[in-house]
């Protein structure tokens, strides 16, 4: 009897500690400026699940936080090479496709990519290229080559990306090397080029590039194509080119980390993002090309594909390469980047 009342008391105390009707939540960790805020509101209204939303600036920042294990997120949106790394390191969990029926809207050409060959861990969200965003009214001549970013005419008039893999990758291409090179001599060339370029750089930025280019604070900038689309929509004098030497093509995809707390909520959110109307609304806000065929139909495929930023010519795509995870050599990239950026 005594035992029973002790049990009843413990139960009562436990129940009192649990908030009645506790709010279901999911935590989402995404790039800055990478979702239409209304999408979050609509999801909350439709599902009753509250979204706790945090942003990061680079794949490397996001990775560090998750790999250290200090943070738990239900949904993250890394890029290709980082997904490859996180799969290898056991930092992602497989997606149960039965719970993501809207994956049917994703163009099959974007599935089973090299970074996730079985499409077990990721759902394509956006994609794009890297290139030069330039102001037609202030450039000396229309850029066609990456060498524009070494032109002293743009001293303190150019913006570079504060993102190690992106900027070093393009520096490798500028030196005539492969953008996935791990050859120490190639990387030394890339480093020397960035050191030489540094006195000409007004700032190393990520999302701030948009306000600065729209406001005419610089003539040229190394950007991701979606940000170019956004800026070109705000300022008619801006244009975008993927230089002739070739570039990076990237894919950002939605994943569930190994230590997610609300997997079923995460799947609901992923499915919501794959819905045609939601993906279309999101595209109109963020500006990045989307792999969602049903959303492109809704937006009007003809108009969507008329943009060479969304739909680059085949000869441009042929010269673009995806970043790969480089294993231990990633450390050399990190070291070089720290040396470059720390003195700025
Ligand atoms: N506003 C941030 C957009 C992020 C785009 N991702 C680019 C990934 C390049 N590897």
Tell me what the structure shows.
The protein is of the alpha/beta class. Helix 5 (164-174) packs across helix 6 (184-197), helix 6 (184-197) runs parallel beside helix 14 and helix 7 runs parallel beside helix 8. It has 2 domains: 24-127 and 250-311, Periplasmic binding protein-like II (D-Maltodextrin-Binding Protein, domain 2, 3-Layer(aba) Sandwich), CATH 3.40.190.10; 128-249 and 316-341, Periplasmic binding protein-like II (D-Maltodextrin-Binding Protein, domain 2, 3-Layer(aba) Sandwich), CATH 3.40.190. 41% of the residues lie in helices and 18% in strands. The chain binds spermidine.
Question: What's the quick description here?
Answer:
The protein is α/β, with parallel strands linked by helices.
Number of helices: 14
Structural class: alpha/beta
Order of SSEs: HEHEHEHEEEHHEHEHEEEHHHHHEH
- Share in helix: 40-55%
Shape, principal axes of CA atoms:
globular
Mean pLDDT over the full residue set:
94
Key descriptive features of the protein:
disordered N terminus; seven-stranded mixed beta sheet; three-stranded parallel beta sheet; 2 domains; D-Maltodextrin-Binding Protein, domain 2; 14 helices; 344 residues; 18% strand; binds spermidine; alpha/beta; 41% helix
